[in-house]
Amino acid sequence: METLLLIFNPYTGGNKLKNKLHEMICRFSEAGYLLHVYPTTGPGDARRMAQEHGAGHDLVVCCGGDGTLNEVVDGLLCHQPMPRLGYVPCGTTNDFAASLKLPKNNIMKAVERIVAPKAVMQCDVGLLNERCFNYVAAFGELTDVSYKTPQTFKNFLGYSAYLLEAMQRLPKLESHHARIVCDNGVYEDDYLFGLVANSASVAGFTFPDKEQIHLDDGIFEMLLVKHPHNFGEMSEVSAAVLRGDVSSPLLTVTRVKHLEFVSDAPCSWSLDGEFGGMLTEASIQVKRQALSICV
Predict the structure, then answer these.
(1) Closest by alpha carbon to 258, among 166, 180, 179, 200?
(2) pTM
């Protein structure tokens, strides 16, 4: 009998998960798994549980949002071989689930994709100064919106909660002078924000040639947004990001395997929507096909 470690965040997604938890456990048991169930109680809990107990299980299932999944993957990376991972997305945005084409609004459909997956995908994982991220590492303005938005707002308003928080911050945006050295060049300017992603789209921006973007090729996408100097440039940046228009001189889009980041002053980073630290230097690399996830 295979063993399954179920790690779930009881605070995510309102009552969606709580109402389905018993049914979910029964379905995994019917599928022949011996279950160990663990609810998280605070930040770092999912990481610790995955690190301490993940190796003793054939399958680890994460139920929660992008942040909970980030912790679980971070905890599992120390295990070789790594157990298979299943993901039941229950958060507010579930960006990574969208990239994997997992059911986002139906918990039991997501469970079935774990019990009888179409495939087990070998997925890339990013590292920022040895901390992992599954789909995005971002720096600069508005990158902290996801973890500073109150959880009650997220549960009640969903993605609109992020938009409301961002709109309140727009008049106070500041730039960050940074130098980025990567595989195909050196970029230095005053940036509003930037991100490195293992995804065809992030935060409403869709990268060009998305059909050529793969989650297992050892290559990530990079977007840099220069600081707008007036209202006209701010409007141009907003429109370009929403349209995915990379022709704007205020946007830089390229593909990277590795980069070194240096800024003049400490800059806020987020990893999969969670706080990643205030950094003046950062090194990002890709661990190719480090994660085995049921899709």
Answers:
(1) 180
(2) 0.84
